[in-house]
């Protein structure tokens, strides 16, 4: 028998010289295959395929055996969640704790632990609202639960609900008056609450001041009879009479704060100075060269010539290659889009007098004017077919 056994072993060993062992690890990736054995795994795979990890799938099936009671399953899920939490895999921890809560087992203390732990996982994920909801639910089940009280206060601080954070701390301190964490959180929450209240008061005072300034500005504009419009082109009326009172026309926008906003990239806006004078952002257009100039603060009492002599003084703009744009050669117009007319403006006229004209409408908070060279070929062509009227 011994000889038969030896002969059989010899035959078995000799077989490996000609045939490979079918169940052996591959010599090229044996480490990867070795790591698929649950006993030797360094880390559990995420979202694994049971076919690829059959041994791990069997163990998991045992852990979540359908024959076990809801309490046993919930306990296993709690332990699984705790293991993920320890690894800082908070997403997986939330999934495990949620699955345990979904079982609605009869062990109330276990349910409280599951929800408290899920609140912690949500907190570390940055899901403050979900963490607060879990802490609130635990507090309803057990009003003196210290971890829930602390977590609720922490969430409120992160959500900048400082008054609520103080309330959470006060509720906890009634039960645990000497708890260091609650005392620390209350101090932090109260400090932030006082700062937030102070900032809110400042913001409200500033808003009130700005609103007052806007209202004073609108009153000044309205008192001068200047008409603001929001649309780029007022609605056409059937009457072309210059005697028409456009001040009450439905084509004009109501005087409001939005009508003062300039659409220019500079963000310039009409303002009222300490002496009670209005300063307007004004746009000059040069259609011959497709150029423009922008004056951010044109005082209403200044005449147009005051600015033009500066703009076209000793140094003329580079686009004026023919050196034609000199103050004495210039003509100024504003356009009445509704009547399709141009109104000639005397350069010695003040901005205020022009703005008070019955046919002048300030659009988007910025009066605009057309500048031409008197008698030039472009000027003659540009004015051809247009109705020209004077102030």
Automatic annotation (TrEMBL):
<dbReference type="GO" id="GO:0051879">
    <property type="term" value="F:Hsp90 protein binding"/>
</dbReference>
<dbReference type="Pfam" id="PF18972">
    <property type="entry name" value="Wheel"/>
</dbReference>
<dbReference type="InterPro" id="IPR044059">
    <property type="entry name" value="Csn1/TTC4_wheel"/>
</dbReference>
<protein>
    <recommendedName>
        <fullName>Cns1/TTC4 wheel domain-containing protein</fullName>
    </recommendedName>
</protein>
<dbReference type="GO" id="GO:0005634">
    <property type="term" value="C:nucleus"/>
</dbReference>
<feature type="region of interest" description="Disordered">
    <location>
        <begin position="228"/>
        <end position="249"/>
    </location>
</feature>
<keyword id="KW-0802">TPR repeat</keyword>
<dbReference type="InterPro" id="IPR011990">
    <property type="entry name" value="TPR-like_helical_dom_sf"/>
</dbReference>
<feature type="domain" description="Cns1/TTC4 wheel">
    <location>
        <begin position="273"/>
        <end position="380"/>
    </location>
</feature>
<dbReference type="GO" id="GO:0030544">
    <property type="term" value="F:Hsp70 protein binding"/>
</dbReference>
<keyword id="KW-0677">Repeat</keyword>
<comment type="similarity">
    <text>Belongs to the TTC4 family.</text>
</comment>
<dbReference type="GO" id="GO:0005829">
    <property type="term" value="C:cytosol"/>
</dbReference>
<dbReference type="InterPro" id="IPR019734">
    <property type="entry name" value="TPR_rpt"/>
</dbReference>
<dbReference type="GO" id="GO:0006457">
    <property type="term" value="P:protein folding"/>
</dbReference>
């Amino acid at each position: 028998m011994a000889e038969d056994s030896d002969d059989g072993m010899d035959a078995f060993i000799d077989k490996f010289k000609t045939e490979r062992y079918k169940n052996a690890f591959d010599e090229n990736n044996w480490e990867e295959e070795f790591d698929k054995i649950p006993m030797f795994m360094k880390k559990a795979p995420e979202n694994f395929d049971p076919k690829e990890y059959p041994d791990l799938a069997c163990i998991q099936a045992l852990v979540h055996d359908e024959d076990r009671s809801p309490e046993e399953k919930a306990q296993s899920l709690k332990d699984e969640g705790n293991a993920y939490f320890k690894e800082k895999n908070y997403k997986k921890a939330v999934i495990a704790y949620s699955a345990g809560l979904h079982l609605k087992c009869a062990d109330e203390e276990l349910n409280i632990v599951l929800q408290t732990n899920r609140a912690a996982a949500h907190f570390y994920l940055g899901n403050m609202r979900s963490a607060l909801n879990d802490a609130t639910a635990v507090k309803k089940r057990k009003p003196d639960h210290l971890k829930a009280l602390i977590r609720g206060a922490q969430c409120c601080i992160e959500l900048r609900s400082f008054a609520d954070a103080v309330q959470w701390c006060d509720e906890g301190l009634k039960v645990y008056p000497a708890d260091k964490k609650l005392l620390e959180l209350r101090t932090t929450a109260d400090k932030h609450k006082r700062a937030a209240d102070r900032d809110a008061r400042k913001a409200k005072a500033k808003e009130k001041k700005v609103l007052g300034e806007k209202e004073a500005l609108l009153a000044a504009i309205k008192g001068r009879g200047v008409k603001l419009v929001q649309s780029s082109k007022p609605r056409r009326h059937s009457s072309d009479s210059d005697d028409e009172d456009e001040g009450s026309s439905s084509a004009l926008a109501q005087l409001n704060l939005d009508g003062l906003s300039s659409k220019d990239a500079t963000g310039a806006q009409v303002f009222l100075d300490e002496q009670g004078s209005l300063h307007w952002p004004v746009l000059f257009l040069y259609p011959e060269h497709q150029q423009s100039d922008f004056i951010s603060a044109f005082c209403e009492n200044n005449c147009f010539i005051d600015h033009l002599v500066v703009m076209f003084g000793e140094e003329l703009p580079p686009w004026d290659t023919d050196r034609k744009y000199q103050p004495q050669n210039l003509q100024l117009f504003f356009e009445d889009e509704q009547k399709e007319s141009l109104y000639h403006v005397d350069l010695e006229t003040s901005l205020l007098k022009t703005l008070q004209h019955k046919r002048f409408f300030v659009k988007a908070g910025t009066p605009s004017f057309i500048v031409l060279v008197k008698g030039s070929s472009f000027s003659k062509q540009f004015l051809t077919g247009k109705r020209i009227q004077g102030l």
